[in-house]
Amino acid sequence: MQNVEMNFDGLVGPTHNYAGLSYGNVASFSNAKGVSQPKAAAKQGLLKMKTLHDLGLAQGVLAPQARPDLSVLKRLGFSGSDAQILNQAAKSAPAILAACYSASSMWTANAATVSPSADTPDGRVHFTPANLTNKFHRSIEPVVTGNILRATFADQQHFVHHNHLPENDHFGDEGAANHTRFCADYGQSGVELFVYGKTAFDISAPAPKKFPARQTLEASQAVARLHGLSTDKTVFALQNPDVIDQGVFHNDVISVGNRNVLFYHEQAFANTEHVLNEIQSKMGATHMHFICVPTAAVSILDAVKSYLFNTQIVSINATDMAIIAPMECHDTPAVKRYLDQLITLGTPIKEVRYIDVKQSMQNGGGPACLRLRVALTPLELAAVNPETKMSEAKFARLNTWVDKHYRDEIVAADLADIYLLNESYAALDELTQILNLGSIYPFQQV
Ligand SMILES: NCCC[C@H](NC(=O)CCC(=O)O)C(=O)O
Predict the structure, then answer these.
(1) Confidence bin at 1 (pLDDT 50/70/90)
(2) What ipTM is given for this predicted complex?
(3) Residue range 387-427, pLDDT digits in tens
C-alpha cells in the first residue's frame, strides 16, 4: 500500500446559521442574518466527502463541536436552567448567543496544523489545534477540537497531540488554512510553508490596515518548533497585507498546493520571488510547478467571490491531479475561462470537478476550508479510528442521521429555542456512537 494524503472534512453541525460573525470575511458579513439550511448544508458536505471517496482518495470525517456552548454562556454570567440561559442571552446579548451557536467547526482547515511523520524528528504525525483567537466564536473551539483529534487519531505510537498556543492575538493561529506542504511523494520528507499576516512583536512590520491579520509569524514559528521541523525544510512567508484588506482572510483564499504544485494568485505573497526561490531550493532535486494566476486573468474580487484558490488539488494517480472547485467558480465567467484553460497548459492539473457547497460558501468556507489534510503511511492509516473513514455504508448512515435530527431552516430567532439545543445535543450524542469517539463533548462529561 502507498502513502496517502487523507482529507478529513468537518461534518456540518445541526446549528449551522448565518450570524455575520467574521469581520474581514466578505461572505460571512454579506449573508448575516440570512436563513440557513442545516440539513442541506450537512448533505452538501457529505456528498463532497463521498465524491472524493469515489475518486479513490482516502476520506475521513471529523465530528462537529457541540453547540450551543453553554459553558461559555455560564462563564459570561448567564445562569439558571438551560432554557433560562438561552432566554437571558437572547434578550440581552443576541450576538454572544449567536457566537455560542456557530457551526464554524465545519471548516476543519482551521482545526489544526498537521505535520506528517516524514517531516518530524520522532517519526510521528504531529497535531496542534488552532487557537483561533481573532474571532470570539472560533476561539471557543480548540479544547474540543483537541478531544476530537485525539479520538480520531488515538494511537500514541503514531500520533502526537500538542496543546493549542497561548490564547492571545500575539499567537493568533488559524491552523492548516495558512499552511501548505510540498513533497515529491506523500511519504517523503517535504517542505512546510507557513503563511502569516503580521509580525506581532514588531509593530513596524507590514500588516493590513483595514481587516485583521489572523495569523502571526510568532504563532507559525511556535507550531514549527512544537513539531520539531527542520529550518532547512520550512518556509515562512508574509501574505500580501493589501489582499487581506480585500477579503483574503486566510492564505487558502489566495493559494493552494499539492505535492510539487503551488497554485497561487500573482498578489498572494509580499515577496513572491523570494518565497518561490526558497521553496524550490529547500525542495532540492524535486522540481516545483509554480502556477501563477495573473490579476489580468482573475481579479482579487473574482478570486474572493468564486474561491478559485479555496479549491482542493488532489492527486488522482502518480502524475495527474484534479482540482475540486466550488460551483461559484463555474458561475464566475473569468474564473471558468481560466479553469478551462488551466487544464490545457501542460501542468499536472488535468481535470476540474465542480461541487455544490453553497451553504458553507455563504459563510466564507469553500471546499478547502472544509477539509484538514493528514498525510499518512499505511501503518498510520491503519491506526486511524476506522469509524471516521468515509465509505458507502458510512455515507448512507450519516445521511440517515442528518435526516433524523437536522432542521430544514434556522433563522436568528430560533437560537432562543430550547428545542434546538435539545435536538443538537441528541444528534451529537448519537454521532459520537456512530463515529466511536467516546465522550468528547462537555455535555457528555457532567
Ligand atoms: N476557513 C473558512 C472559515 C470561515 C469562517 N466563517 C465564519 O465563521 C462565519 C460564521 C458566521 O458569520 O455565522 C471564518 O471566518 O473563520
Answers:
(1) low
(2) 0.99
(3) 999 999 999 999 999 999 999 999 999 999 999 999 999 99
State which amino acid sits at residue 199: T
Sign of the four-CA dihedral 335, 239, 140, 109: positive
- Grid cell 476540474 — which residue? 352
Distances (CA, A) of 27 to 247, 299, 429: 9, 17, 31
192 is catalytic: no
pLDDT tens for 259-271 read 999 999 999 999 9
How buried is 445 (Cβ within 10 angstroms: 0-12 exposed, 13-18 middle, 19+ buried)? exposed
Supply φ then ψ for residue 112, to 5 degrees: -165, 170
Tell me which of 25, 136, 370 to substitute to probe ligand 1's pocket, judged by most ligand atoms within 8 Å of the beta carbon.
25
CB 427 within 8 A of CB 14: yes
Domain ranges of the chain: 4-67+102-444
* pLDDT over 70, % of the chain: 100
Q: Which residues pair with 166 in a beta bridge?
A: none
Question: What one-character DSSP code corresponds to residue 245?
Answer: T
Question: Which one of the listed residues 141, 174, 192, 218 is annotated catalytic?
Answer: 174
Q: Is the pTM of this model over 0.90?
A: yes
Facing residues of 376 across strands? 4
Pick from 408, 399, 383: nearest CA to 431: 399
Residue 388 has what pLDDT? 98
User: Taking 80 as the threshold, does the pLDDT of residue 175 lie above it?
Assistant: yes
Rg (CA), the chain: 21
How many angstroms is it from 364 CA to the middle of ligand 1?
A: 6
347 Cβ contact list (under 8 Å, min separation 6): 261, 289, 291
Say whether 250 is catalytic.
Answer: yes
Distance of CA 334 to the CA centre of its chain: 26
Residues with CB under 6 A from ligand 1: 18-22, 25, 28, 102, 104, 107, 109-110, 135, 138, 177, 250, 363-365, 369
Catalytic residue, candidates 250, 329, 380, 405: 250
Spatial separation of the C-alpha atoms in residues 399 and 397, rounded to whole Å: 6
Distance 238 CA to ligand 1 centre (A): 22
Residue 161 a catalytic site member: no
Question: What was the pLDDT predicted at 446?
Answer: 76
Pinpoint the alpha helices (H) of 208-332. Answer: 217-226, 241-244, 272-283, 300-306, 327-330
Query: At the fourth CATH level, which superfamily is domain 4-67+102-444?
Result: Succinylarginine dihydrolase (3.75.10.20)
Grid coordinates given for 344: 490545457
